[in-house]
Specification:
1 helix, single chain, 37 strands, 388 residues, globular, 44% strand, six-stranded antiparallel β-sheet, mainly beta
């Protein structure tokens, strides 16, 4: 891969860690055992020893202006957790180039959310209960070793997580709590907790003065242009799964008040659309909900709603071009007017495909097509994709 920097890209083994302990791995810590030591992973390329590729003029060419970074979380097999990190160039037409392995993440566990902020890539996962890892990033490549730590969890499970800048938010949750008489009662939570990144590590978890409109758990969360969207979830109200809340979020000012902005309705039948494990992402001022599973099985339905940049509110839901087949657990990225869905689980198995559709000005989609020649190095699901 052509890059601006010479980087040694090595696999590292994540050591056992105690809760709250920070971990750093660098090239000198490599022991020869990858955290995901599967035979289907080729060795990473040592860019520093190979030297940069040369251009026709004799000097190193500039790197591509934009890249697609893929964090792949699950594979087929008895041990499904992975920590793969792959990167590919994106050209002006939205075409994805060939992927290359970067230094894998420290922790093996279900990926939750990721972002690029303040020149660093941040990833939160459920490894060791709850953990975060981060590395400096430059021109789409890791420019420093990974650092990571386990972090405190809210007392009730089922909370949602999303980054606001470099701060990690945890919202809601539910579980059994002491009822004061020796028994327990099931309680849902409406608390918003903020864990800032400061001085190279994540600090203590603070409660926000604002709260969710209602106590909920197991929601989907998306950050877009200074807004946080909470999609669905389990609440006391029977229609909670179709609701969407939005709030302004500022890394310095904190989280504003959440308000209900939409009910997700499939305009084809006028019914609430509440699939489990859908692919939800935002881009080009649209919020997309694609695939997932319904009570009748996996679905290929895709809905879109236009985002009002002034207040984050959503317009009516549109039924846009259906997927080529059922899909869940895929990565989602929007770049230059194109929606990309990456990997995921189809009707029967995990996929290495990248499919894409052009986004029209009104948020509708063109026909789905395979990205020209580009595939993931291996079939994966539970994918998080970042473009920049």
């Amino acid at each position: 891969m052509r890059s601006k920097a010479k980087l040694v890209l090595l696999y590292v083994a994540a050591a056992a860690i105690a809760s709250g302990c920070a971990v750093t791995f660098g090239p000198g810590d490599y022991t020869g055992a990858a955290a995901d030591a599967s035979a289907d992973r080729p060795p990473p390329r040592d860019v520093a020893s190979e030297g940069p590729a040369s251009s026709a003029e004799g000097g190193p060419p500039p790197g591509p202006a934009h890249r697609l970074l893929v964090l792949a979380g699950e594979k087929d097999g008895a041990d499904t957790a992975t920590n793969d990190v792959w990167v590919a160039p994106l050209d002006a037409t939205g075409d994805v180039g060939q992927f290359e392995y970067l230094q894998p993440g420290l922790f093996r566990g279900a990926l939750v959310t990721a972002t690029v902020a303040d020149g660093r890539l941040f990833v939160a996962s459920r490894a060791y209960g709850r953990s975060v890892e981060h590395a400096a990033i430059d021109a789409g490549l890791l420019a420093s070793p990974w650092q990571g730590q386990t972090i405190a969890q809210p007392s009730l499970p089922g909370y949602g997580q999303v980054f606001s800048g470099s701060s990690l938010l945890a919202l809601g949750g539910a579980g059994n709590v002491d009822d004061g008489s020796g028994g327990t009662i099931f309680v849902r939570d409406d608390t918003i907790r903020i864990m800032p990144f400061d001085g190279g590590a994540f600090g203590p978890m603070d409660e926000s003065p604002t709260r969710l409109p209602v106590p909920i758990r197991d929601m989907t969360m998306v950050a877009y242009k200074g807004f946080i969207y909470v999609v669905g979830g389990d609440g006391e109200a029977g229609d909670q799964e179709s609701k969407v809340y939005v709030a302004r979020a500022d890394p310095d000012a904190g989280v504003g008040s959440f308000v209900e902005t939409s009910r997700v309705v499939n305009p084809l039948n006028g019914q609430p659309h509440t699939p489990s494990s859908p692919v939800v992402c935002a881009g080009d001022d649209q919020l997309f909900i694609a695939g997932g599973s319904t009570s009748t099985g996996p679905t290929d339905i895709v809905l879109a709603s236009t985002i009002n940049e002034a207040d984050g509110s959503l317009g009516p839901w549109k039924a846009v071009t259906k997927l080529p087949g059922p899909l869940r657990g895929a990565g989602c990225a929007v770049w230059n007017g194109t929606l990309h869905l990456i990997g995921g689980i189809g009707a029967t198995s995990r996929s290495d495909r990248i499919i894409r559709a052009r986004i029209a000005a009104d948020g509708t989609l063109g026909e789905w097509e395979l990205s020209s020649g580009a595939k993931l190095p291996l079939p994966r699901s539970s994918i998080i994709a970042v473009t920049f």
